[in-house]
């Protein structure tokens, strides 16, 4: 080996540690960054994969035990609490749907009653001979007093139909 080869070999040995002084980190967008300069200060230590004096990140290495954890503070409801809230909302929605259905049935029944009352009022006003059936199923015709009672009841029903 001549002096020039020894010079180049020693130069390589001196430059090798400088080449190893690189930084590797994952930025905010999840992209791996390589640089000879340290990462920005907003990058947390756990996202710095390689730095001078820090071993290269090995994803297959066993995880280091975390320092003693502080008492757990609940940052939100537990799964059981969330499930209970969900079931409560589900029950409330079902009850609201039942109330809405009952209200719709009541409105339909009231509309049918109002329609029947209008027809009765029209028959009374036209002087049509009206009949009714007794408990034995026999037909009897209404006299003037019964017609007047029916007219008054029909007007009460129609007053609520507005």
Topology of this protein?
Blueprint: H1 3-20, E1 23-26, E2 32-35, E3 48-50, H2 79-126, E4 131-133, E5 139-141, H3 144-160
Antiparallel strand pairs: 1-2, 1-3, 4-5
Helix pairs in contact: 2-3
Sum up the overall morphology in one term.
rod-shaped
Reading side by side through the largest sheet, how are the strands ordered? 2-1-3
Please count the helical segments. 3
Distance between the termini: 116 Å
pLDDT average, as an integer? 83
Kindly estimate the percentage of residues that lie in beta strands according to DSSP: 5-15%
Write down the secondary-structure element order: HEEEHEEH
Q: Which parts are unreliable, with pLDDT below 50 for 5 consecutive residues or more? A: none
Instruction: Kindly name the structural category.
Output: mainly alpha
Tell me about the largest β-sheet.
3 strands, antiparallel
Q: Give the proportion of residues in helices.
A: 40-55%
Rg over C-alpha atoms, rounded to the nearest angstrom: 45 Å
Total beta strand runs = 5
Pfam families: DUF4124
Biased composition (Low complexity): 97-113
Region (Disordered): 33-162
Biased composition (Basic and acidic residues): 81-93, 135-152
